Amino acid sequence: MRHDWPLLLACCSIPRDPAKIESLAREIRLSESLLGLAGAHGVVGHLALALAGVPDELSCSPLLQSLTARHRAHLLSTLTLTAELFRILELFRQSAVEFLVVKGPVLALRAYGDPGARQYADIDMLVRDADIPRAAEIFVATGYQSRVSVAAIQAGKIPGEYRFRREGSGTIFELHTERTLRYFPSSLPVEKYFQEKTVLPLDGYSVPALSAEHEFVLISIHGATHFWERLMWIADIAAFVHNRTEVDWNRVRGYAMEVGAERMVRLAVVLAERLLRVPVPAVLHADVARDLRCARLACAIESWLPFAGYAPPPLMERVKFRFHMPGGFLQGVSYLARLSFSPTEDDWSDEGTSPHSRAGEVFRRSLRLARKYRRTPEQ
User: Fold this and answer.
1) How much is the pLDDT for 379?
2) What average pLDDT does the segment 56-78 reach?
3) 347 is in which domain, residue-wise?
């Protein structure tokens, strides 16, 4: 971490400091270590672009050659996913199922101006909960396997997401609804999302997407959902803030308030400033200054962030983090309880939907989470 991590931060910072990047790159001794860390953090593309301008004596090094090969593979993967996205979108349009594409190529286009600029392994879409049965039919009919069974969908069970995987290619689509996005502190206003949607041009196709302000709130919540364990998510925030000068930050502030995500948005911009040198938007300055908890949470994140999820915060640290996300005591208790006891597909039983079955699933979830994240100091 002494050399690799500072270089990744420099490569994701805005604006980049070429002299600093060159100096740090010359200190790298184990190129596979650096490439492995960049891959784990999802910033291979950032690293490749930053090192593209290094002097000739470095450009022919094994590090640059291996990095170029990995970046090329990443670009090929995103092109394949984007082509499949266009095919699926046409099927959805024919069926009259309304949808929005979130994160993935849409976020890459918004934050970086290039749909291939960031890594993503699947395509995320937002649909109404009422449209899930029809959406599932479309995916299954076109060769995808659903992780959530038809019986579970008909029974009204709510997974973490509706995942569809195509055999052979391994392409994955994940559908989200107002009921699956449980990491929103308050209910997701799905009808407002569709009313205020926009259309983005992507390789000649018109792709329906969230408004920029709603997208920013969503990616802030997504980062908090995963404890900000990957540098890519903070780099997205930094690029969004720096490059999307037309964003109405008063609307971002208002939308965050609607779903109880004010602190999540504040934490996102604080991390972008502390780690990647992108100033907090002026509209949010006063809110950030008043929220002293934000700085403490950012310090905690910096302690586990470099390890890209391989040294996750222990159970009690996770509990405290979740508790502090909504901002208030009662809101924190409610949010923590909902996330701790709302079963997903990993907790479901085959016993039907009886109260006894539901109680067993709730217990199974809390036990599973405790086992998964319990860690002693020696581990």
Assistant:
1) 38
2) 79
3) 343-373
